[in-house]
Amino acid sequence: MFKLLLAEDEPALRMLVSDSLEDEGYEIDAACDGEEAIGMIKRGSYDLLILDYMMPKLSGLDVIVQARALPGGERFKILMLSAKNQLTDRERTAAAGADEFMAKPFSPMALVDKVKEMLHA
C-alpha cells in the first residue's frame, strides 16, 4: 500500500482529496499547513507528497525545497496543487523539485488518475 501526505489548508478540499484517495486504497496523512507537513515528512515515510502551493506558515514551494534537502528527500514523488496556473508558477514548481503540477480546480477522479500515474509508472 502506498502512503501519501496531503498538505492542504482548505478543510473541505483536504477532506475531499483524502476521501477520494482512501477510497482507492491509499493511506493518507493530512497536514493543514506547510510547517506541519515538514514535521510529518521528518517523522514519516511517504511515497508521494501532495502539496498546496499557497499555505500558511510555509508555502508548497518552501516545503518542496526543505523536503528535498532532507536525508532521503529524493525517495518520494511530489505533486503540487495550485490555483496559480501561470507558466512561471509551473516553472518555479519544477525548479523547486516537484515531479508534477495540477491546476485547481480539478475533479477528484482526475487527481486520483494523476496519483495512479505517478505511483505506478
Automatic annotation (TrEMBL):
Tagged with keyword Magnesium: no
Gene Ontology biological process terms in this record: phosphorelay signal transduction system
Domain Response regulatory: 3-119
Keyword annotations: Phosphoprotein
Pfam families linked: Response_reg (PF00072)
Coiled-coil annotated spans: none
Keyword Phosphoprotein in annotation: yes
4-aspartylphosphate: modified positions: 52
SMART domains linked: REC
InterPro entries cross-referenced by the UniProt entry: Bact_response_regulator (IPR050595), CheY-like_superfamily (IPR011006), Sig_transdc_resp-reg_receiver (IPR001789)
UniProt superkingdom: Bacteria
Organism whose genome encodes this protein: Cohnella thailandensis
Protein name as it appears in the record: Response regulator
